[in-house]
Amino acid sequence: MDIVVKGRKTEVPERFRKHVAEKLNLEKIQKLDGKVMSLDVEVSKEPNPRQADRCDRVEITLRSRGPVIRAEAAASDPYAALDLAAEKLDARLRKQHDKRFSRRGSRRIPAAEVPDHVPGVATLNGSGAVTSPEEEQAVPTKKVGSLEVQGDGPMVVREKTHVAAPMTLDQALYEMELVGHDFYLFVDSETKEPSVVYRRHAYDYGVIHLRTDTMITENDSPEAGGTLGG
């Protein structure tokens, strides 16, 4: 790999090109990133006399199989600008190298799994204080709606009960449009069973009827209910 040095609206003297080759040590760069494909150095000059202290600008662009790394700096002469840009490039290369190394060397453990991987680790409560073994064993249980929840949740249940007269499917569709919802729960006037009408695609609708299964009722099975599909 060679270093390409070019000037933008300015001439690049041979002495500066040699200084670039000395300052940007290719062997050192390839140790930090072994997949480097090209290294470009662009020198430009600001003609505005008011910016004499920043008239020379050097931009270094390193391309590899990973992300492109750029570093630029401005100073009163190109040599000082190159030194500043080279320091920035070195810092960014090291940061990228350390990032890759840390990803390969270790696997992140979610906070919830820390006690399983680290013996004797302390457990914190919601306030950030260390919990005692007695507090860990005495997990409070509270009633939320018709469910029992241990600790703080995260389940939140909102329970509503409505009194509704049985209606036809056409009436249920009309009521759904009135309230602006995508589904509507009603009691079918023909079957006297709970049903749900729901919006599908475009102007299509679907309807789900729930029919009581006497076998499930007799066996007191906890598995009941259905899902919206189709």
Automatic annotation (TrEMBL):
Say if the entry is tagged with keyword Cytoplasm: yes
| Pfam families reported in the protein's UniProt record | Ribosom_S30AE_C, Ribosomal_S30AE
SUPFAM superfamilies in the record: Ribosome binding protein Y (YfiA homologue)
Which coarse location class applies to the principal site listed for this UniProt protein? cytoplasm
Q: Keywords, A to Z?
A: Cytoplasm, Translation regulation
Give its localization: Cytoplasm
Task: Identify the domain of life.
Answer: Bacteria
Q: Which residues form the Sigma 54 modulation/S30EA ribosomal protein C-terminal domain?
A: 154-207
Concerning InterPro entries, the annotation shows:
HPF/YfiA_ribosome-assoc, HPF_long/plastid, RHF-like, RHF/RaiA, Ribosom_S30AE_C, Ribosom_S30AE_C_sf
Q: How does it assemble?
A: Interacts with 100S ribosomes.
So what family is this one in? Belongs to the HPF/YfiA ribosome-associated protein family. Long HPF subfamily.
Q: What does this protein do?
A: Required for dimerization of active 70S ribosomes into 100S ribosomes in stationary phase; 100S ribosomes are translationally inactive and sometimes present during exponential growth.
* PANTHER family assigned: 30S RIBOSOMAL PROTEIN
* Protein name according to UniProt: Ribosome hibernation promoting factor
